[in-house]
Amino acid sequence: MSVAFRRDGDEEHLEPKFEVPIPPGPNLVTQRGLEMIGSRISELTAKVAELSEETALNTAKRDLRYWRARRDTAKVQPEPSGPKAMFGCRVRFALDGKAREITIVGHDEAEPAAGRLAFTAPLARAVLGAEVGEFVDFNGREEAIEVLEIAVG
């Protein structure tokens, strides 16, 4: 058999394992978000101590590095106050005649299906700074969103 068709092992053909990408910009978090990061670090630290299989162990260590970096760069934002939609606020609004509600949070806390959007998401950016009764532009349309209610997260 030709040397070209032989391989000694599968290791050289595996996909390289890259670090988990860190979102660009500041790492703004709510107090809940900081607690979530701490909880995730605790879970992963325990998992790393238990694992022995190399691939799973390396994956857990990579994830632990990500969460520790996020904790180290976290900037807890003050509780929202006042009449304007701010980081940490829950905002109820009407878009295309349908009422919706979102909470504006940090990247690691974001869960769009649950209505928690990162502050950098287009919809969150559109309502940031708005007040109840105000109409804001969204998705290239003027006054597409009517802010109905603003509450603390």
UniProtKB/TrEMBL annotation:
Keywords, comma-separated and alphabetical: Kinase, Transferase
Keyword DNA-binding on entry: no
Domain Transcription elongation factor GreA/GreB C-terminal: 84-150
Protein's name in the database: Nucleoside diphosphate kinase
The keyword Plastid appears for this protein: no
Gene Ontology terms, MF aspect: DNA binding; kinase activity; RNA polymerase binding
Short name of any one Pfam family annotated for the protein: GreA_GreB
InterPro entries assigned to the protein according to its UniProt record, in alphabetical order: GreA/GreB_C_sf, Tscrpt_elong_fac_GreA/B_C, Tscrpt_elong_fac_GreA/B_fam
Compositional bias (Basic and acidic residues): 1-18
Highest taxon above the source species: Bacteria
Classification lineage: Bacteria, Pseudomonadati, Pseudomonadota, Alphaproteobacteria, Sphingomonadales
Region (Disordered): 1-25
Gene Ontology terms describing biological process: DNA-templated transcription elongation; regulation of DNA-templated transcription elongation
